[in-house]
Design a protein that fits this description.
Elements lengths: L5 H132 L5
Length: 142
Amino acid sequence: MISLDYSIAYQIVLFLVLWIILSKVLFGPYLNLLDERERRTTGAQHDSSDLEQEGARLRAQYEEKIAQAQAAGHAAREAILQEGRQQREKLLTQAREGAMSMLEGVRREVESQMQRERQLAAAEARTVAQEMVEKILGRHVA
């Protein structure tokens, strides 16, 4: 049987003193260390989550700006192509007009030369005809 004497009281007091000492020296710092580790881990996880969200936001912003730049580039390209087409049409129109005026000038000149040549041919034909008449008739015809 267990006897209750002063040694039990001594053991209880010793246990309580040891408990208080170990709480201050060992258990308290260990529990504080666990709390600090948990706080840092949770804080790091929150920071990591915040950084991931910030990264996603920056990526979306970057992709939006890239899309805007591409759209602006396509619009500028289309504007340049349209301007090039307009300049090409303008140059073609000017070239056609120049060719038509040159062709018209050449036609007028050819027509003028043809008219002169016809007149010369008619005059020469009259001269040749008169000479033939004179040779056939044997006399001078006026």
